[in-house]
Structures are given as C-alpha cells and as structure tokens.
Amino acid sequence: QVQLVESGGGSVQAGGSLRLSCAASGYTYGSYCMGWFRQAPGKEREGVAGIGGDGSTTYADSVKGRFTISQDNAKNTLYLQMNSLKPEDTAMYYCAESEIFYCRGGLDNLLALADFSYWGQGTQVTVSS
Fold it and tell me: pLDDT tens-digit profile of 23-75?
C-alpha cells in the first residue's frame, strides 16, 4: 500500500526558509514523477514543483529561484527546500506520486492533477510579514 507522509511545515517570517520532507513507502520509489502541490483556503490546488523519474525538474513561475525539489532514492524521500518565503506561500503543502515517468503539465496547472494517484496528508506552511 502506497503511503506518503509529509513533515517539516511550520510558521516562519517572510524571508525565512523551510525544508519539507515526504517519506514514501509501498512502491518502487524513484521510478515516477513526484510532485509538491499547495492549496490555500478558497483556492485551487496548484502544482509547485515536480521531479521526473529521470531527475528532471519543473517549477511554477511563482517559486522559481526560491524553491528546490530533490529526492534521496536511498531514503525513499522527497524534499522541497523553500527559501526567501513570502506571505503568499502560505498554504497546505502536499506531496503526491504519479504513475508516469515524466511530469507533464495540466490545464492551468504546472502538473496534471489527474496523473497523481497517491497523496500525503499535507503539512501547513504559514509565512508572516
């Protein structure tokens, strides 16, 4: 059974940093596109960053240059390093696992939501000004 567990969220001031982790189990990690998404109250869930089975990465314009997605296949763990955080980054952050090798975009979204079969429970990130 696939399980994804996020951790690392918290409250920080603008300009601060956080590193989110997503521990995966129940499948062959590293073979599929993995993604980080976020959802703020009243807003749609949006793709923030994705990493393909070949290690290729993609980022939303709003986080380029500030966020870095990475993974440690030996630890079955996905990361999201978030620097220079802004109040508009405040949201619940989710990691998700797809069943496709390369990440692909969706309609009006960095990552196609329909590609992702498994989701973590989310970790809250709050950035104060």
Answer: 998 877 778 999 999 999 999 999 999 999 999 999 999 999 999 999 999 99
50 Cα distance to chain centroid: 7
Place of tokens 């696939």: 2
Q: What is the pLDDT of residues 117-126, one digit of tens each?
A: 999 999 999 9
Q: How far is CA 56 from the centre of its chain?
A: 14
Long-range contacts of 51-60 (CB under 8 A, 24+ apart): 51/78, 51/103, 52/101, 52/102, 52/103, 53/101, 53/102, 54/101, 54/102, 56/102, 56/103, 58/103, 58/105, 58/110, 58/111, 59/110, 60/110
For tokens 């059974």, the residue is 1
The rounded Cα 34 to chain-centroid distance in angstroms is 8
Reference 116, options 100, 88, 97; nearest CA is: 97
